[in-house]
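Example 3.2
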Amino acid sequence: AAYTAVNKIFADAIASMMRPHDTIWVHDYHLSLLPKLLDTAARQQYVDGTASSSTTTHHNHRRNYRRTIKMVYFLHIPFPTSQVFRELEHGEAILEGMLNADIVGFHAFDHARHFLNASKRILGLTYESLVGGLIGVRYKGRKVIVSMSNVSIEPDIVDAALILPSVSQEATFLKQKHGERSIIAGVDICQRLSGISLKLLSYERFLTDYPDWQPKVVMLLKCLIPGSRRTDEADALREVRFLVRRIQDTFGTSVIDYQELMGSSLPIDQRLAIWISSDVMMMTPIRQGLNLLPLEYVFCKKEPNYPGVTIASEFSAVCSVLNGALRINPFDVQITSTAIEKALSMKVEEKEARRARDINFVASCPSGLWTKNVLRDLNDATFGSYADSSTDGEQESIRRKHAAEKMEAVESPKAILARENESALSKLDVDKITAAYLSCKSRVIICDFNGTLVTKEPPGKYLKREILGTAGNKPPTAVVSALNKLCADQQNTVFVVSGDSQKNLEDAVGNISGLGLAASNGACFASPFVGIQNSQRIWKSFDLGVDWNAVREVALPILSKYTARTNGSFVKLTHYSIGWSYYSCDPEWGSLQASYLVPELENELRAFDVRFVTLKGIVEVVPRKLNKGLIVTTVLRDLIAKNDKNDTSGVDFILCMGDDVSDEKMFTSVLSFIAETGNVTCSLDDSRPSFAHKGQTESIIKTASPTGHGSETGMYAYNVVVGRKPSHASFYVDSADDVGNVLIALSGNNAPILPNKKWDSEACVNFFA
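Structure, written as tokens:
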């Protein structure tokens, strides 16, 4: 609660001065919720600016909001592994907060890799490599850029400080104090993560294994006590004092120069004096972000000064920056002690060569240049999305194209074609589809269930649900109310199609009077009924030409074997499908097992007319002829036949909505049905209904009646996919919440459903009140 409160204080202060097209840079873990809070504030400012308009227009403005502020979130500390991050109560809220930025930056690829892994395992997100070496994460229809970049010291400031008299005086004093001894320098925060105890243990082992060095070396150790983590500091200080006393008792007081100082940093003149006088700098943290002190040390040893050697822990970000450093694992005391001996014995030629590897970066990447580079990536990432295209000139258009090219993924030809297909999608305009709906008399609404009516949980959430991968068994109350209202209209035919079992589908929406159901990807279906009892439904099934009992006898032993070796997986049986679900498994292990399972099943089931459907978190075996398009075609043809029998008009409005690859057959079946109804021609008569087709403006479809009457009728056909992705659909919405809002709007209700706040930190605050 306190962490959230601090972030809200910052958000309120920034929001009060935030304006469109502002750039906001958020630093470090203290404010990880801030990007999401600022995005919410910007959205609210936009909505408040339209509050004076009518209710309908106001809701349209809310839907058409387009973010103009640009945000960078840069984390300067290591990002924990997904296993550690999962233990945080509000870990998802932190991830979502960070992902509301346009750029999420880290100092090392290790840190970025942990972030990407946590996003995959906890939120179910995917990422891709982009042109130019960046990484893009798909989050809520946006591409969030993950970048790795490093900042060096300010060379002008350090150069100016080096000529201070206090620096040369202190350096001379230290050399005189320790005589001919080689100095191993270290300035560390007295906390467990700094690894000071490991450094002392390695130094103690070095003195033991290399006794000749005992009169020739001294460790100059400055231990800083900031007072921010008192318990941690007290524990670390107790260990450090014990080891210092033990080393001095064993080898004499001259081998170590130890000093404790209050505060989190040394004045720059004291630091530089230590670097100038020392031969080796040693840092042994067990986890650390970017520490600029080793870079400062390298800079102080530039020509014409005598070169030094840096010993850096492989668990620090600086290890990936300094190519000339000796890399060590501080937990390996023996190897670290050997590295100390190597640094002290190193020939001057090798020292100079190691210095040459690092000095160019250290001396040429100050914070100003680093900031410019990060902002360049930000502009490239947001230029095509947030810029005002109305003011484009030729140069601006070229720049926009260049920026877009940088954000393109590294793709195969197949992926390029899919991306081009995706780019043709338009966002669904709820006001326009509502107007089309109201102008029609014979309407068909077909909607997928999991991931469309009901929010689908991402893989890696370790779900234990009756309905696979869905956030609860039923749609929101407002959506159920809208479905009831739509089904009550005699001009509507409404179907819900699901890959789930007949029982689960009936339990979820079976009590909605007038609603048609199709389970097992359309293998079995029940026509709309009037009443409130599921027993009144009459279920039918397609003859798909496969002996399904024989398929089960072959497939189940194989699936049982993979289930036994893959913890959390299970077999899901429906009317005409056999599924192996790894939603509840470790996502990487589950995906690996699925990659072995499919070829084995293909080999054993080659005698049967079946195919394999691989979706996110599940592998299914289904008859080759089975797909959700069967039920769509059946519903549309039956309705045409019914209308012809009653001498009424044909279908003039089709809305088909789905979210994944199994729903693509529904979209293509709608297009095939339109083609079957007669010769399709396009007209730009805006007074007539339109056919929403990829790559075209909304235009009327005029078709000859299937009965041969030859009359021409207008038709609206909307294929809508959840999430912007390669699809046969013509339109997209961002989430299942938007699907609910579409149905609510069509039913005549005004209040949209609110986004799911299940993982919002605010939802948890009351637990601690």
